[in-house]
Amino acid sequence: MAFMEALLQVSSTGTLICCSLLLLAVYLLFFRSQRDENEPPGPKPLPLLGNLLMLDVNKPYLSLCEMAKQFGTVFTVYFGPKKVVVLAGYKTVKQALVNHADEFGDREIMPLFHDFTKGHGIIFANGESWRELRRFALTNLRDFGMGKKKIEEKIIEETCHLQEEFEKFEGKPFETTQLMNYAASSVICSIVYGRRFEYTDPQLRNMVDRANESIQLSGTASVQLYNMFPFLGPWLKNYRLLMKNLALDIKEVSELVNDLRQTLNPQDLRGFVDSFLLHMQNAEESGEKNSLFNQQNLIFSVGNLFAAGTDTTSTTLRWGLLLMAKYPHVQDRVQEEIDQVIGGRQPVTEDRKKLPYTDAVIHETQRFANIAPMSIPHMTSCDVHFNGHFIKKGTCIFPLLMSVLYDEDEWETPHTFNPEQFLDKQGRFVKRDAFLPFSAGRRSCPGEGLARMELFLFFASLLQHFRFTPPPGVSEDDLDLTPVVGFTLNPIPHKLCAVKRSQNEI
């Protein structure tokens, strides 16, 4: 018995020594990588954990902004064992994404995003597949949406439906989330599928609810942990929920696509899906093998467009209405300008040029809301010498958009809501170079033109017809601007009153 106890003690000691040596080896490997000549500086990482103990996992963008003050505008940080180079500040981010667009133009496909798409679609793809599908998406967004009078008419029609829904509350408090999501989703559906969905349609509601849940779950600490340690996936509830939603999304999109396939008319294309199906048909007829126009790329491209086209626009609009209730003096000026220039007629896109203050408020909402603070990760396509540093090919890059939109060298009052930052002394609208909410370079948002049109038409129409106030018993000071952390930053759940303005006010 004594012999066995001694043997076990020796065995345990040996195991402990081996583990210690392994951890030491990992740490030395990390430390050496951190100290490679000319590589970006950064905090020393711990074995396996990297710099996690220095990061607020729920709000990593805030931690990274603080690190930039210590380590500079190009620095290295470890998310667990994952090495990331962070780019901070307008000048650095622009130089990388615009002046070195090719070198910083690949997409870092993290484990979760790989599980989502397996490299298919537009957002989480690289190489020829990404180039061809992005080119196709831009062409079709123009053909069926951006810059077309037809899509302006569809958005205006949607503003009317949204106003009707707001009126049903008769000035009583309500949560704006679902209605704003339904409105934005219906617009993107009209471009993708060639038809709008009624807000009561269970199919639209299910798609929107799942998209909202997935976007929120994607930003949780447990899912970020999965990206660092993928083997944990089966044990993480949020990861399992995301995979369940993904399966339902694929099923739903497949059914909608199959319905359109049955009634496809090459002489009368209704939207993005019809155009893609026609390319698939032509590839099959010509015997083209390994065509990028296949069922998987179609399903995931549609999913990309739906999620991106719904979340960013609706979230920004919700921030806009919340800010109007929070700052009634700003709302006063917006409504006074709309009343003077437009009166009671329907706002149109051309009115933007005549409404500089309203335009400034929309831009400042996008800047202040900062809904994509870390952008979507990039990856270097080759070895890069950048700002005196050497960055290896295949390195994950975080363009810290928050550091651009809140850059103290570029904005007069970066941490407060101030539309005056977009106006000159004569009250004319002024473009700002550091306004990059859609990112920049090769990976900038392909739907920027559509989003800008939607934001203006929805915002101007709603402010024309309604006065937005806090619920009874709630003061403007009580309205909380703390964001809910997800893949994008949403306003904290809240209710507003949309009080219909009288014709005398307009």
Automatic annotation (TrEMBL):
Gene3D superfamilies: Cytochrome P450. It comes from the Eukaryota. Its cofactor is heme. PROSITE patterns: CYTOCHROME_P450 (PS00086). The chain crosses the membrane at residues 6-30. SUPFAM superfamilies: Cytochrome P450 (SSF48264). InterPro entries: Cyt_P450, Cyt_P450_CS, Cyt_P450_E_grp-I, Cyt_P450_sf, Cytochrome_P450_fam2. Keywords: Heme, Iron, Membrane, Metal-binding, Monooxygenase, Oxidoreductase, Transmembrane, Transmembrane helix. Belongs to the cytochrome P450 family. This is Cytochrome P450 2K1-like.
